[in-house]
Amino acid sequence: MKHTAWACAVVGYCALNLSGCVLGPDFKTPNPPLAPHWAATPSEPGHSAAVETPVDTQWWQRFGDAQLSALVGEAQRNNFDLQRAASRLEQSLALRRQITADTLPAVDAGLDYSRSRNSRHGLNDPSGRSGKQAFNLWKGGLGFSWEADLWGRVKRSVEAADASVRMAEEDRHGVQLLVIQQTAQHYIQLRGTQQALAVVEQNLNIARRTLALTQLQVQEGVATDLQVSEAAAQVAEMQARLAPLQQSSAQLINALSLLLGREPRALQAQLATPAQVPSYQAPVPIGLPSELAQRRPDIRRAEAQLHAATAAIGVAKADFYPRITLSGSLGLQAMQLSDLGSWGARSFAFGPGLSVPLFEGGRLKGALQLQEGRQQEAGIGYQQTVLRAWHEVDDALVAYQASQRRRDSLAQAVRHSQRALDSVHQQYAQGTVDFLNVMTVQNALLANEAAWVDSTVAVSLSLVDVYAALGGGWEAGSVNARR
């Protein structure tokens, strides 16, 4: 008995000491191929230029629009996609807790009662009654088992689970960034649509005054019915432009309502009143290129995915080696309930178990090759994600500068068109030009004003794209994962 106990103790001691061996490659954080400085983008006087100062995590506040800030805050609280991402993170944490449990002994307790009768002609009756009578059997006790992590299989499994949790965290951060981006985009587009609607209504009023003037000139014999028809057609054509803009405005309000987890038209009263397109004129802080990998959720997720794939190689390698499991039980067994607490009713068992894979038909080798292939794919995916992020930032910065130049040029075109329309109206009232000139100039003004509104929206949208490409915004409402 003593020799058996000593043998078990020696096996347990060896298992504990060998558990420090961990197979498989150790993960090393990759160095992303990023340039030390952003590409220089030419800036003209009066334009917002990119500067390498820390990125503002609440960049939407820079627009100075309280309505936009309130919508972004509500979207982060109530958006259903964000709630689903948070639920997936909780699921990932629960899975990690399951895997972590393998590092500790499993202990269970049991209490059992049975009444039975054995066969007279079968095996020996443990009750000693030769199968002539039924008997009671009472059992109770504790049992435990623990697998010695000789080759780091459990440790690598926990490491992979930790990386999977980080992947779920970054998925949530990515959804949060997307929700903020879409909320800002829809709001900016809504204000641009409302401003475009105001431009059309303003031109419609001008067209109506021109129609009234033409009708008056017909009465005076200066104009013809053809000119009246042309003026009326101009009014009708501008009225026709209102319906699509009104439709777009209603749909954008509904899109914002959906992002905020609210029913259709829930924001109608709140957003129906027109307002200016949010804009930002100061220098744009974009941080350092070396910080991009720490800010972009997709890069962080790709890194975590590579980490999980690397740890899985260690799990696959550990499956080639023996497993030692320590198990035991301590309990009581008696045929009478009154005897269950006596010293003679005690029972115990303790000992190690050894499992050695001898022949698996190539299954283990195939599993290892699979994990190595997944790690290679994850490494390529990481490099591709970083490169794509770099392109997105560069494209967004170029678009931001180009949209500002287009806006400035269109602003000049609008000013010239307005002066031309004032002049042609005076000449038309004096009878020195015909109505075709008025229509041509007014259509040009309407086109330039519509294009200018579109360019103003494009400037703000491109700035949103800049911050989204930089990965700024999700830090404001991130949730610390509970380990």
TrEMBL record:
Top-level lineage group: Bacteria
Keyword terms, alphabetized: Cell outer membrane, Lipoprotein, Membrane, Palmitate, Transmembrane, Transmembrane beta strand
Membrane topology: Lipid-anchor
InterPro entries the UniProt entry points to: MdtP/NodT-like, OMP_efflux
UniProt keyword Disulfide bond present: no
Annotated compartments: Cell outer membrane
A Pfam family the protein falls into: OEP
Similarity annotation: Belongs to the outer membrane factor (OMF) (TC 1.B.17) family.
Name of the protein: Efflux transporter outer membrane subunit
